[in-house]
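Explain this protein:
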Amino acid sequence: MNCYCGNNKTYKSCCEVFHLNNGKTETAQQLMRSRYSAFVLANGDYLMATHHSATRPTSEKIAIVKWAKSVEWIKLEIEETTKGLEKDKEGTVTFNAYFYKNGKVDVIHEKSAFKKENNTWYYVGYAES
C-alpha cells in the first residue's frame, strides 16, 4: 500500500521516517506530506511539533485530533511548490486534501507557508497570495 501522502512508497519508508525523527525533512513539501499523513493518523504530537512556535495552536491540539478522527481522508494533491528546497529558508506548498464528512466529499485547499530554522522545516500557516 502506498503512503497516505500519495507517494509511491510505503508509509514505513516515507512519512513514518519523519514521524519518528521529529519532522527532520529535507524539503517543505516533505513536511507538508508528512503533516497530511499525521492528520490521517490523528498524530497530534507530530502536528504540534512541526508547527512553528510563533503560530502553534497548542490549546487546540485536542480539537484538531478529534476533528482529524471525525473524517475519512481520501487523498492529498499537491498543486504547486515554490522554494522550500534543502538550501532555502522558506517556501510554500499549495495543496488539496480531500476527505469524507457526513457522507459528502469535501476538500481543504490551502497555500501553506513553511520556514526553515536550525536546519528544520516548520509549518507557519496560510501563505499570503
